[in-house]
């Protein structure tokens, strides 16, 4: 019988084969009888918008239905980023969650782990967002505490040494054990028994980890952040150790942030059969996969390569937020070699987590997942009723925008940070933050009926929530926690004119790569030319000086120029003169001479003040700690844009019309005065 995942006819080929064959069936060959079938179910990056809650029930139903087709031959794995600080992450710390089965004891991030436990995940890679709360919080999420069971699976990474970190050292366990015996633990590898066969699972995490999250005292390996050969050499011993145990089927959970890295690893490693990519949200799908409205596949599923020994290796990935479950059914011969001619694209691919797929598979929602989801939603509904401001425009916090250009969300939150800093120190002139710290918009993006074209997208103000008294345009605690989900602390310091130029060059050095380092600013206006050479640095070593920044001016609240810092790409005046700025604590943390996201501050910081340690007045908004960026935005909205009579009304502008950050490739003028 043919498998029709596109049209939803249940897959029955295995049952038909077993029913129609006997030991002496003349149609069976010895090689076919010796082959082993594995069903890999996988996903990653469940770390995005709170809207992932809308997908998790359907996702759980699909897991249950597909697992039932191969009940003895299935593994369920994650390539990391199982959560992210934000509304649903914080909702799990509400006291009410202590009465929700699977959580049992309230704490940040625990509902996300409870989802995974309920669905039966067996291992996960360590992703960057898994560490965003710091190593102490990471430990509290994966370890058992009181009635909270912690993660019923191991977190794996062969590129991280957890032992130097006091918060995590006690969770490190021996590599290569049965995953079922490694709950609440950290290791390089684990083993899952599937129908009598041993499947080795190795984890790996991007070497850029230290610059994109809070790694504490974890040692991130290798030292180089852009040497894939060195990265493969770091991973290979963990694979070799499993092979030495007699294991000939190995899956690598690789959270590399860029699928190009996983693609290259597939050719550099030996004895890795399948790589489950993570961190890039890359949707791989077959031509016959039914995708969600507006989605398009980046490439086919699976990607096929030859490893360093010439044997086949597959790379798989799906988009995040529980939107898709990846499914790979593959055969191995007795030597553990993948039989690529067995791959069936009517079975393998991306399964959209919606009711249509659930109905097609006759799936049933996991009751425990439904209970946890309801508990989180009740907490979120209450927070959506805590109104802190109002906007009459859509506030653009989309990833593609805040990482490439000025947006009204970037302006709003940079303004808020500057405003709060000036309440403490009125000499602060400049606010700089990374666009990657903005994780969501405030408003609604929709397709008109019958359209899936991005050209037809409509952008509207925040919708009302009548159940909690939220009017259209209102901005709530829920919204702020969603867009500024890392809730970074704020740091005030002095920087020189030269450092300001260096920082801005770094901020625009990879705009074409949609990098989180791209700056959102207040108190300055600058222009850059992306056709010129960008700054390139490996750690603290600058291998190519940037020449993209063309003008920089410090401005007052009315837009008047206070100081011309750069003109026609040339630093003006005394390069050592200083400006007082506010930035995020994450960016200002010294990681071997550079800040978070690689920001090139001159360490040690000069006249540094941590606002969280200094501000004691809780102010009007009390849900976030004083001196954090969620608190800054909430207090700024209350003071400046409190209601529909005085809303935030600065509409998003086209790239060619941006004024704070002027991209010269989008403008008709070629050289701008500040």
Written account of the structure:
With 674 residues, this protein is an alpha/beta fold. Helix content is 24%, strand content 22%. Strand 3 (123-125), helix 6 (135-142) and strand 4 (155-156) form a beta-alpha-beta unit. Helix 3 runs parallel beside helix 10 (355-361). Residues 6-32 have low confidence and may be disordered.
Task: Characterize this entry briefly.
This protein is 24% helix and 22% strand.
Rg, Å, rounded: 26 Å
Low-confidence stretches: 6-32
Characterize the largest beta sheet: strand count, sense, and whether it forms a barrel.
7 strands, mixed
Shape: globular
Question: How confident overall, as mean pLDDT?
Answer: 91
Percent in strands: 15-25%
Question: How many helices does DSSP assign?
Answer: 17
State the main characteristics.
7-stranded mixed beta sheet; alpha/beta; 22% strand; 32 strands; 674 residues; 17 helices; single chain
Write the layout of secondary structure elements.
Layout: H1 13-20, H2 30-34, E1 36-43, H3 53-69, E2 74-78, H4 87-91, H5 110-119, E3 123-125, H6 135-142, E4 155-156, E5 160-161, E6 177-178, E7 186-187, E8 189-194, E9 197-205, H7 209-212, E10 219-220, H8 228-244, E11 250-255, H9 259-268, E12 274-278, E13 303-306, E14 312-316, E15 324-332, E16 349-352, H10 355-361, H11 367-384, E17 387-390, H12 399-402, H13 408-424, E18 430-434, E19 444-446, E20 458-460, E21 474-476, H14 477-483, E22 490-496, H15 497-507, E23 519-522, E24 524-528, E25 536-538, E26 541-544, E27 549-555, E28 561-567, E29 570-571, E30 578-584, E31 606-610, H16 611-614, H17 629-640, E32 661-663
Parallel strand pairs: 1-2, 2-3, 3-4, 4-7, 6-8, 9-11, 11-12, 12-14, 18-30, 24-32
Antiparallel strand pairs: 1-15, 5-10, 8-9, 13-14, 15-16, 17-21, 18-23, 19-20, 22-30, 22-31, 24-27, 25-26, 27-28, 28-29
């Amino acid at each position: 019988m043919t498998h029709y995942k596109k049209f939803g006819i249940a897959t029955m080929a295995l049952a038909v084969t077993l029913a129609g064959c006997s030991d002496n069936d003349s149609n069976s060959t010895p090689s076919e009888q010796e082959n082993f079938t594995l069903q890999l179910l996988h996903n990653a990056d469940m770390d995005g918008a709170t809207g992932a809650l809308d997908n998790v029930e359907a996702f759980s139903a699909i897991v249950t239905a597909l697992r039932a087709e191969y009940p003895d031959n299935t593994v369920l794995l994650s390539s990391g980023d199982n959560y992210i600080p934000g509304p649903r992450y914080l909702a799990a710390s509400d006291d009410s969650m202590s009465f929700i089965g699977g959580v049992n004891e309230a704490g940040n991030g625990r509902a996300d782990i409870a989802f995974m436990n309920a669905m039966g995940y067996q291992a996960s890679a360590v992703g960057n967002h898994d560490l965003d709360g710091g190593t102490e919080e990471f430990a509290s999420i994966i370890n058992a505490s009181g009635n909270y069971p912690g993660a019923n699976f191991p977190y794996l990474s062969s590129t991280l040494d957890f032992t130097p970190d006091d918060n995590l050292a006690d969770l490190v366990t021996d590599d290569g054990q049965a995953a079922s015996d490694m709950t609440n633990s950290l290791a390089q590898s684990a083993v899952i028994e599937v129908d009598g066969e041993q499947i080795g699972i190795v984890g790996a995490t991007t070497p850029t980890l230290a610059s994109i999250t809070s790694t504490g005292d974890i040692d991130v390996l290798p030292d180089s952040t852009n040497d894939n050969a060195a990265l493969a050499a770091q991973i290979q011993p963990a694979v070799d150790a499993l092979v030495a145990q007699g294991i000939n089927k190995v899956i690598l959970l690789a959270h590399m942030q860029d699928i190009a890295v996983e693609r290259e690893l597939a050719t550099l490693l030996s004895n890795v059969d399948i790589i489950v990519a993570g961190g890039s949200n890359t949707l791989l799908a077959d031509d016959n996969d039914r995708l969600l409205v507006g989605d398009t596949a980046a490439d086919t599923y699976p990607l096929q390569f030859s490893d360093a020994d010439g044997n086949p290796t597959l790379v798989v990935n799906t988009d995040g937020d529980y939107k898709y479950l990846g499914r790979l059914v593959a055969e191995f011969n007795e030597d553990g070699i993948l039989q690529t001619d067995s791959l069936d694209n009517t079975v393998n691919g991306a399964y959209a987590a919606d009711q249509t797929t659930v109905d097609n598979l006759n799936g049933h929602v996991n009751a425990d997942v439904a209970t946890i989801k309801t508990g989180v939603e009740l907490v979120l509904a209450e927070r959506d009723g805590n109104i802190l401001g109002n906007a009459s425009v859509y506030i653009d916090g989309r990833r593609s925008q805040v990482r490439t250009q000025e947006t009204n969300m970037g302006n709003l939150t940079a303004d808020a940070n500057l405003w709060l800093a000036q309440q403490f120190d009125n000499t602060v002139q400049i606010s700089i933050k990374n666009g990657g710290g903005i994780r969501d918009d405030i408003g609604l993006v929709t397709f008109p009926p019958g359209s899936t074209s991005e050209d037809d997208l409509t952008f509207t103000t925040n919708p009302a929530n009548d159940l909690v008294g939220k009017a259209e345009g209102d901005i709530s605690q829920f919204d702020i926690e969603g867009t500024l989900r890392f809730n970074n602390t704020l740091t005030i310091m002095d920087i020189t004119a030269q450092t300001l130029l260096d920082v801005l060059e770094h901020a625009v050095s990879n705009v074409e790569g949609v990098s989180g380092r791209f700056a959102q600013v207040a108190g300055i206006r600058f222009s850059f030319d992306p056709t010129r050479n960008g700054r390139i640095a490996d750690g603290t070593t600058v291998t190519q000086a940037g020449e993209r920044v063309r003008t920089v001016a410090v401005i007052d609240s009315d837009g008047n120029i206070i100081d011309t810092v750069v003109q026609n790409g040339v630093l003006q005046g005394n390069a050592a003169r200083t400006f007082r700025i506010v930035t995020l604590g994450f960016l200002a943390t010294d990681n071997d001479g550079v800040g978070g996201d690689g920001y090139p501050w001159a360490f040690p910081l000069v006249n540094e003040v941590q606002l969280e340690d200094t501000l004691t007045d809780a102010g009007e908004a009390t849900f976030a700690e004083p001196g954090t960026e969620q608190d800054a935005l909430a207090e700024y909205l209350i003071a400046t844009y409190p209601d529909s009579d005085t809303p935030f009304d600065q509409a998003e502008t086209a790239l060619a019309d941006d004024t704070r950050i002027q991209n010269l490739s989008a403008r008709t003028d070629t050289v701008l005065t500040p």
